[in-house]
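In the design runs reported in the main text, the only information available to the sequence generator was the tokenized backbone. The following block is the verbatim input for one such run; it is reproduced so that readers can re-run the procedure and compare outputs position by position.
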């Protein structure tokens, strides 16, 4: 009939039934992509957790799918955290990102036993330490580092350069100072580092360079503080194939 179909469903008929605008997700495709992504990483690095970025879109139905596929969740707000909890998503696999977490959101995360808080700045580091101490708990954290790598994507979605508003820059000494403060905080347990270069990224070279820089920093930190990294997150931002002639990682 010349109609677009998604998951075997005629979108014209869906629009008649549910109205527009209408978000349509194909459950089969979601399951397939989760398994495909996991397989590609785990066959190379068996101890890998693939984490879905909730900022792309999250509702309870999607959270249930990602739970079934044994993924982790990246949340950036109390609202996204609440959706994850409403789906009984295992909170030990939830990572709380963002450079503007409120005290109320951090308290919520601590009360619910979130797996990791990805600390973005010195203010948050001090605040989280104080809140965790007040509750008598030790919170696992990652530090978000800024490696100073240009991902060659749009300037509005580039997040890994030195002038980025996100994370602790390697070159300025802030990253080293953040490690020092995190290790001295008795109610924080530093597990490792995270970085994010931007999106969409159409080549692998920026990742290679950023990984090399962060691992070099990790070696220096081990020499100075005796800290042994146990978790390393290289972020996301992988481009999708928008056109037939576009090349993706």
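Verbatim output:
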């Amino acid at each position: 009939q010349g109609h677009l179909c998604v998951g075997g469903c005629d979108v014209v008929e869906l629009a008649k039934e549910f109205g527009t605008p209408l978000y349509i997700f194909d459950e089969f495709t979601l399951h397939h992509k989760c398994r495909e992504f996991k397989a590609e990483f785990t066959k190379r690095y068996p101890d890998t957790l693939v984490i879905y970025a909730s900022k792309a879109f999250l509702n309870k139905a999607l959270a249930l799918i990602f739970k079934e596929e044994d993924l982790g969740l990246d949340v950036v707000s109390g609202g996204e955290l609440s959706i994850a909890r409403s789906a009984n998503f295992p909170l030990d696999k939830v990572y709380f990102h963002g450079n503007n977490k409120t005290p109320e959101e951090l308290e919520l995360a601590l009360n619910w036993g979130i797996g990791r808080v990805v600390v973005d700045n010195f203010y948050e580091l001090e605040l989280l330490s104080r809140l965790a101490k007040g509750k008598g708990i030790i919170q696992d954290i990652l530090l978000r580092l800024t490696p100073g790598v240009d991902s060659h994507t749009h300037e509005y979605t580039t997040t890994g350069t030195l002038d980025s508003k996100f994370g602790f820059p390697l070159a300025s000494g802030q990253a080293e100072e953040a490690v020092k403060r995190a290790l001295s905080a008795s109610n924080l347990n530093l597990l490792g580092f995270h970085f994010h270069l931007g999106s969409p990224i159409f080549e692998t070279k920026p990742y290679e360079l950023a990984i090399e820089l962060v691992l070099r920093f990790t070696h220096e930190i081990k020499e100075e503080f005796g800290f042994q990294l146990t978790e390393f997150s290289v972020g996301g931002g992988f481009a999708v194939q928008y056109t037939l002639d576009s090349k993706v990682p």
